[in-house]
Amino acid sequence: MAGFCQVSVEDMVEHLIILTLALLVDRVTGDPERLWRRIPHPVVLFGHAIGFVDRALNNEHDPAQVRRTRGVSAIAALLVLSALLGVLIGWLLDPLGTAGLAIEVILVSVLLAQRSLADHVSAVAVALKTNGLAGGREAVSRIVGRDPETLDAAGICRAAIESLAENFSDGVVAPAFWYALFGLPGLFAYKMLNTADSMIGHKSPRHRAFGWAAARLDDWANWPAARISAGLIAVAALLRSGPTAARRAVGCVLRDAGLHRSPNAGWPECAMAGALDLSLAGERRYSGVVVREPRLNPAGRYQAETGDVGSALAVFWMACTALAVVVLILALAAATIS
Asked: Model confidence over 299-321: pLDDT tens digits?
């Protein structure tokens, strides 16, 4: 539980052991709705802080350069404050010994998204099966930003699979990565940044300038995790379906990841497309605007089905298992060094 810039080998071992346990806890418990109906989720608190600075500093009548400068200052301040909050909580937990470690395991598990992500994606397939297009569209609208009313059944399934792959990187691997390196300060700073990107990092007229820094920093922060996620999905494809699926996953990443409009999302999405032999991406509609993107793995099937969502979830859980195993191996290796 060391400070943000004072991470020793011993601290790294502790982070990795806590992270291994947190991954297991999150896998089993997820985000209990009863708890978060009574108290606000930490990400909700981060969202309140971001909304406050957006309302206070992002005046639509100011010049774009002024708004961009204020956006840079705002995200810098939010990141510093969130990292300092992590340092403070670490200091408070240190004297508690084993109890402090247990609390930190729970806190880290809360900021991982394995179970909640899987539950949301699974709900799309269930709704599509039980309530048809209307149910599938309603369920998928909770996890993607595209216009759900334009999606047919195959489009709903592709959207769910793409969201699963991308959020495996953003919601599981990236927070695990930054916690492993820097503990609670790194985890809190990353979650603040990622939340800011989702709230103000898009290119709407209001946020194009003010959210520029948040979007660029989020791209940078997710760069390592996106590549790690693609590798974990390829490993999962190998373990689940054999070397052919793994080769497809790796081949699609090497060939098509750079075609994606995001510098990061294409990596896990391509790996998932190859693992399932599906074709993902292509034409989409956001707020009435048609966005035409190249297909990822164009040789794969484009008519995804609910069974493919189940297959994607199986790959996802195998990749999560691979992540936990890798973290544990790194903990044991670091412990031998220390």
From this structure: 999 999 999 999 999 999 999 99
Q: Contact, 160 vs 124, CB < 8 A? A: yes
For 3-19, the pLDDT digits (tens) are 444 567 788 899 999 99
Token pair 């974990």 is at which residue? 232
Identity of residue 117: L
> What six digits make up the tokens of 319?
């990749």
- Residue type at position 50: I
Say which amino acid occupies 123.
A
Q: What phi and psi, each to the nearest 5 degrees, are found at residue 285?
A: -130, 125
Give the alpha-carbon dihedral of 250, 166, 294, 314, to 10 degrees.
60
Contact between 316 and 164 (Cβ < 8 Å): yes
Q: What is the pLDDT of residue 1?
A: 43
Q: Is the pLDDT of residue 149 over 90?
A: no
CA distance 17 to 264: 27
